[in-house]
Amino acid sequence: MAKSKFYVVWKGRKTGVFTKWNVCKQQIDGFEGAQYKSFGNLEEAEIASKGNYNDYKGKDTQKPVLSASEKLQFGTPILESIAVDAACAGNPGIMEYRGVLTHNKQEIFRKGPFKNGTNNVGEFLALVHGIALLKSKNQEKLPIYSDSKIAISWIRQKKCKTKLDFDHSNQELKILIERAENWLQQNTFKNPILKWETKAWGEIPADFGRK
Asked: Are 208 and 44 in contact (CB under 8 A)?
């Protein structure tokens, strides 16, 4: 059976959530500057329709809803940990990142906003920031959660493989990336870097809540 899709139109002849592509298409075809995106479930589409298009542009919004039995396969997150996340308005756009204690969402660091960044760059910097912070506090057994597979892979490669173009507007970000890469090259760490399973556990505790 084909999976259902839900379509959000932020800017078009009519706006809102549509359950059929041909109806959505009528709202955006030939409409200058149309803003729209498909979602994998109705709840997320309805939340998104009340938010900002730029918070969803370029993001994977086809997250399926799991059954209770499917969620059990993922277990539960380790609450004695920290969680990191980034937010970017546009791609590239204004970006910031932060880290929190997983069990109570208490913020332990926050950086930005930075001009002309991307979400993946923010996720990478957040992970390095968290790793370095825990190392400085001799807490190298504490896990760190991220919901970005890309950023986690960059950490393992010790390289931020962004295709972001750098100019005078985002030189600060370029410097931070180089500093983060150098830190990874020159230091070791033991903290487990774990994937936050959003499908099973909901949004990561460090989420900026802009959806």
From this structure: no
Distance CA(122)–CA(112), nearest Å, equals 9
Residue 70: its pLDDT value, please? 66
Q: Is pLDDT at 149 greater than 60 in this prediction?
A: yes
Q: Which of 19-23, 31-35, 62-66 has the lowest mean pLDDT?
A: 62-66
- At 50 the pLDDT is 85
- Contacts of residue 30, Cβ cutoff 8 Å, sequence gap at least 6: none
DSSP letters, the chain, are -PPP-EEEEEESSS-EEES-HHHHHHHHTT-TT-EEEEESSHHHHHHHHTS-GGGTTTS---PPPPPHHHHHTT----SSSEEEEEEEEETTEEEEEEEEETTT--EEEEEEEEEEE-HHHHHHHHHHHHHHHHHHTT-TTS-EEES-HHHHHHHHHTS--------GGGHHHHHHHHHHHHHHHH------EEE--HHHH-S-TT-----
pLDDT for res 2: 43
Q: Is the pTM of this model over 0.85?
A: no
